[in-house]
Amino acid sequence: TGSDWRSAFVAAVFAIHPLRVESVVWIEERKDVLSGAFFMLTLAAYSYYTRTRSVARYVTMSILLAAGLLSKPMLVTTPVILLLLDYWPLERVKNSRDLWRLIIEKIPVLTLSVAGAFLSAGGIAAAHDVADQLSLLARIGNSFVSYFVYIWQMIWPANLAAFYPFPQDGLPLWQPIAAAGTLVLITVAVFALRKSRKYLFVGWLWYLAMLLPVVGIIQINLQAHADRYTYLPQIGLCIMIAWGVADLLMNRRFRSQVATAAAVIVIFAFAFVARVQAGYWRDSETLWTHTISVTKNNYFAHASLADLLMRRGRLNEAIEHSEEALRIRPNDTDAQNNLGLALLQNGDPKRAVAHFEKALEINPGHMNAEVNLAWVLATSPDDSTRNGTRAVELAEDVLNRSGHANAIVLRTLAAAYAETGRFSDAITTAQQAIEICRAIGNEGLIVDLQRNIESYRANQPLRSGP
What we know:
Number of strands: 2
Strand order of the largest sheet: 1-2
Oligomer: single chain
Largest sheet: 2 strands, antiparallel
Shape: elongated
Order of helices and strands: HHHHHHHHHEHHEHHHHHHHHHHHH
Strand content: under 5%
Low-confidence stretches: none
Distance between the termini: 66 Å
Helix content: over 70%
Radius of gyration: 28 Å
């Protein structure tokens, strides 16, 4: 752009804004940072290519884009961004003939993007299936509203959370209608100003295009929106603000001093809030407790906290949060399963079985619930609860569908074999579990399995207490 200070402001806000926290501190989202790095390199390589066009420079740019797409397929709209940059600041579009020539020029990178989208479709299938419970109209409406939620969060980044639940009863009809209408009005306005204020046209379409793959029309999981989705799209909004404010101050006295002071205040304010927000990610209990405090009816946060508390042995608290998750969303299979791990450990196997059965009624393929139920049916001290034959069926089903051996599943299957009198199979299966435990260094489970094998050699099935 040739405007160093405006560009520096955009870069600083991108780097320090509290909405960036999730992408940076959550190890799962290292793909955001990696794809973002390749995206920036792609833009730099494209700028280099436009100065002196050559096949080598185009190929270099394409390789960088391919690496970005392999990092995270959200970069599928990059060809659109390159076209926008052709318009401004590269000034390569003088007439419609130029536009068509530049569109044709993008066909190779567009092909890369289409291939990336196609290859990633299989990876999100399971999460997409869950989200298909939401109607298309509900998803479209939420998408319109999300565009403005992200704008508001950019201006006022308060009450940021790790998970924002999709409204149980849907959004009030006026919200998506108002959001859609406002989106159209803004788009028409920036199109009308496309010659006099090119940065508004480019910045707004950058934001719309980059957010489109994750705005929720194609829903992944059941969140209404997510901080990490703003990682690259909001650069477009930053461009609009930086150049827009500069234009507003163009003929004002002390414009440099006012702009500098405002930029410093904004950056330090965002830095302070980002530091606080990063602190909520220091451990899982803090993260989910904070999420519950700043959102409403967050079944996912309650279920996640319940799972954590159960693993720490705080069973009464785990039961309380599991029950709250089920109050909010009775058909949540994870919450049903977690409430059953907690009740079982708390010495209430009958209620535990009821929740495992309910989880499998909702989702017959829920493997955690299958394993947990199989364990109770194979090892419960209560004769009326045990069912060795069904325990074998459940454990074998998980083993066959998971695609790889798992020590916990094998331990459960061994106990189920023992309950049905197949002690030699139980010994062989438990020994397989021990080999896996040795490979991963799980000494505690090895000791437990060795005790189990001693029981099987004595022709005694397992009986487990809380």
